Amino acid sequence: MSSLSSLKKRKRETKSLPAPSQPDGPDLISQLPDCILHSILSLFHVRDAARTSVLSSRWRHLWEAAPLRLFDDSFNPNNRSPYDDCYYHFVSDPWLDWSRNAVSSIFDSHHGPIESLRLSLFFSFQMDGFVKTAVQRGIRELNLVPFNFDRDPYKLPLSLLFCNTLHQLSLQNCTFPQALPPSIFPNLRELRLNCVSLADYLLPKCASLETLLISTSVEGPPVSISSPTLRKLVFERDIDLVSSPAELIIKDAPNLESLILEEEVTCRTKLKVLDAPKLQRLGFINTDVRAIQLGRTLIEQHQESSPPTFVVNVTPYGMNLLSSVKTLAIKIELFSDKKTIPIILKCFPCLENLDIMKYEGNGDEGYLNEGMWEEQGSLSFLDHLKTVTVKGFWGDQCDVELLRYLVVRGNMLQTITLLCSKQITEKFVDIKKRQICIENRASSNLALVFFRDTKRNAHFSLWNDMIHR
């Protein structure tokens, strides 16, 4: 009986509840100006933006005039990337044809400006029409990756070279026309090249270029950089392939501030920094360097000797010293000659921040001469060095001798951050502090900090984020 009475009570309470309120008043969002609604719609995926056309007559044609952000591979229902290893087994997959048709339909229906466009599902011979239409509609960000990127490259149309709205351009396996006008890409700020030949005369024609990212797996002629406006250069190679350009030459870059190199670049590519008077950030320089010229200092490895030896010469070309560099990153390889480290550091007399990445794993420390650091005396950069970060710290002899040298002689040192590759214990910390002679530190403000190393530790993210963006 009690359950029956409680059921009747709940029914009476339900009947007494007020009916759900119905929306009343005007549709305030629809009353916003078109320019604001266009901005809102431009943030949607194009598929969702197009669906708003069924809301009412007010929304029927709004998305057609909103700034368009279109990525042809975003229609993939299975989240399969065009770069998956198994991708080419699905060349005839229906979603490819559906995605291509969807892009064509959107271009036919949409008549507003194009903010950004990525084409990666179309063959080279199919891309011209889309690119020319994008130029006519004021494209700002363009990413071109021919679907058959291992075959015929896509030749850029002349109309793209004169596009004055383009701010960011990313190209993979594309070629520039043979004859270029005196000036191209008048307002281009960022250029990304992947497997694209970079002619010496190309960069000086880009009057507004500030950032250049080069990714290559092609062995070829030297890459020479001459640009009056370039501020940041990132150079990386395909780590799965052993080929790379023979040389990377910073020939004339009066405004270059950052030169970011993938960790293994200097192992296979000869680096020459000849003229970059404003360069502030440089790395990685690998201790297993093939050959590197920093200003007038030329360091070359002689592979025929065992262990490999390095010859240091002074050339008549280039800046005397790279005194503008404040931040330097070095990659120490397992079996490399550690004598290259002080040779490299001597080229940067005003260095303030030193970031060191160690080889992965513990083992043979390579060719280390005991007492090597004590023989160096007091190098110029020690009067300016403020921070040191070591990623992959094991506490072996190589680590200890280097840090002891910096601690005892670094007058301005503020922080040494050690990202440890092993478990940190109080005993480990006490032993390393004693070996490094922290009590004899030259700077009374020096702090020694231990962290457990992770793949993307925030304390080393400066170089990770700039290379793998």
From TrEMBL:
Region feature Disordered, mapped onto this chain: 1-26
Record-annotated FBD domain positions: 381-418
F-box/LRR-repeat protein 15/At3g58940/PEG3-like LRR domain mapped to chain residues: 128-356
SUPFAM superfamilies in the cross-refs: F-box domain, RNI-like
Coiled coil: none
Boundaries of every F-box domain copy: 29-64
One Pfam family in the UniProt entry: F-box
PANTHER family assigned to the protein according to its UniProt record, in alphabetical order: F-BOX DOMAIN-CONTAINING PROTEIN, PTHR32141
Listed name of the protein: F-box/FBD/LRR-repeat protein
